[in-house]
Every structure is written in C-alpha cells, then in structure tokens.
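Reminder to self: tokens first, then the designed residues, so the page reads top to bottom the way the pipeline ran.
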C-alpha cells in the first residue's frame, strides 16, 4: 500500500483536474445558452455561483452581479479556491509533488496549460476569446487524462486517481444538472420554459453527451429523457450512475475498503432505484443537493480510511469543494 500522503496527493490531483474540466464546461454552456436565447430574455448570471455554494465568497469581493464579475470570479479569482485558475494551480502543485509516481509527460502538459491560462486572463471580457480559452482548457484536461490512462501502471496510484475522478465527476455533473433546474425554478422562468429544449441541449453539450444521447434515446431532446440519460445511463461515462458504479469498482481494489464500500454501494443502489423522471425538472436541484451531501460523506470516509487513519477526523481540515 502506498503512503497515505502520496495517495491523498494523487486523489486530489484527479479531483482538481476533473473540477477544472467541468468548471470550464459549465461556464461554456452558460455562455452558449445566453447567446442562443433571445436578447430580450432576462438571464441570471448568478446561477453558476449558487451551484458552487459560493454566494458568500462572491459577495465579499464583488458589489454587484454582472457577467464580467461572475466570469472573473469563476475563472480567474485567486481568492476563490474553486475557480478555474485555482483548480489548475492545485492540479499543478499535486503533480509537482508526485512526479516520482506519474508519467513525466504529465508535468509538461499541466505546467504549460497553467501558464497559458494565466496569460489568457486579460482576454476574458470577450465572449469569443473566453470560449476559446475554455475549449483549450477542456482539450488540455482530455490530453492529461489520456497520458494517465495510456502510461500509468494499474496499481494503487491509478486506483486513487480513478476514485478521485469519479467522486469529482459525479459531484460536478450533479451541479451542472442543478444549474438547469435552478434556471427553470426561478420566478421568471415562465418565459424561459418556451426555450426549455435549448436548455437541455446546452446541458448535453456541456457534458459532451449530445451525440450519445441521440444514439441511445433515438428521440428529440426532452427533459425526461435527458435526465434519465445523464443520471442513470450505465454506458455513458459522464452519467452519475456510471461514476458511482466506477467508484465501487476501484474502491474494492484497495486494502480494507469495507466501510467506504458500504457507503458507496448504498449511494449507488439508492440512486439506481430512484425514478428520476417522476421528479419535476424545477425540483431536480433538491435531489442533486442530496447527492452532493452523500458524496461529501463518502469523501470523508475515504480520507478517514486511507489518508488520515490515525487522526481525529473531527479536527481535520483538508482540501475541499469551494
């Protein structure tokens, strides 16, 4: 078994890499949605801040809600630990301190992406330039994951990377679903409902699932089918149930996984049994909040079991979702 501090570093490297990728996807989807909807339709830029539970953090630094302020907070704000720049800085640091475990190409890819992101911060005011930066980040995350998948031995380091990836992907996919639900739950959403198919298409695109949805569902984009696909499809790698099932597989490969596996299996089983289509779309965000709470419990048990086995966990302060 690898050292607990090393296991924690590669676990968090994978989580922050997934967080950076999905943050870029979420911001891109929100921007594309704005451009696809009529200019006369009032649009809430604060929703992405809400789904990161970062309202208080935002209000400390920004007196008003605007596209420019929200984008700076989510992409470039160094005081926001879950900003795109902050996430990639954490990927970089965890890679730097784990070079003896990881393929040597990883450092070059991560460092180059971080430097390019820093250099591009001045262009975030332009929507077109911002979209290009976000696409570059998403492509870089795919390249980094490709190197890990292609060159890393299937040992416990790989297991912890996969566990971190699946925990974070489930969390971030739930937040992306939550964004669409919150937009439809707003008091002014009656106007937005006329364009509901655009919202769900944007959601599928954000998660790279539009083509696979059309293949699997063979139908037009409707809320009920999109929710079932993104929540419970066991063949699509960004669905929630796929990530929860992947977690169970990689946890079972580690020594003494019993307590964690029990929690993970219970979360997956309950999620698989849930009739997603019976939940009104404007209430899905409550269901996603509950899943995020379950994932926090699961993360704490992972940390207690493998990262801090002899520590009073109630006193532990570790890296966390912003």
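Designed residues (322 positions):
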């Amino acid at each position: 078994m690898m050292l607990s501090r090393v296991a924690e570093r590669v676990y968090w490297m994978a989580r922050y890499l997934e967080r950076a990728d999905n943050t870029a996807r979420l911001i891109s989807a929100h921007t594309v949605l704005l451009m696809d909807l009529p200019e006369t339709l009032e649009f809430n830029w604060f929703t992405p801040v809400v789904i990161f539970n970062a309202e208080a953090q935002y209000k400390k630094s920004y007196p008003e809600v605007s596209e420019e302020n929200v984008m700076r907070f989510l992409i470039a704000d160094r005081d926001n630990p879950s900003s795109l720049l902050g996430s990639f800085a954490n990927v970089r640091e965890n890679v730097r301190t784990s070079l003896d475990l990881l393929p040597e190409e990883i450092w070059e890819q991560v460092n180059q992406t971080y430097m390019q992101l820093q250099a591009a911060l001045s262009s975030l005011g332009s929507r077109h330039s911002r979209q290009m930066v976000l696409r570059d980040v998403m492509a870089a995350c795919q390249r980094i994951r490709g190197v890990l998948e292609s060159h890393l031995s299937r040992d416990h380091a790989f297991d912890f990377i996969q566990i971190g990836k699946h925990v974070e992907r489930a969390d971030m996919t739930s937040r992306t679903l939550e964004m669409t639900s919150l937009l439809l739950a707003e008091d002014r959403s009656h106007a937005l409902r006329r364009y509901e198919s655009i919202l769900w298409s944007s959601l599928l695109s954000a998660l790279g699932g539009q083509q696979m949805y059309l293949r699997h569902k063979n139908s037009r984009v409707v809320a009920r089918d999109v929710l079932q696909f993104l929540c419970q499809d066991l063949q699509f790698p960004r669905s929630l149930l796929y990530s929860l099932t992947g977690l169970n597989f990689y946890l079972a490969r580690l020594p003494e996984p019993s307590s964690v596996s029990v929690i993970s299996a219970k979360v997956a089983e309950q999620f698989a049994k849930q009739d997603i289509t019976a939940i009104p779309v404007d209430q899905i965000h409550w269901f996603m909040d509950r899943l995020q709470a379950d994932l926090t419990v699961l993360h704490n048990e992972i940390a207690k079991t493998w990262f801090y086995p002899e520590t009073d966990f109630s006193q532990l302060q570790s890296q966390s979702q912003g």
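Residues 4-310 form one domain.
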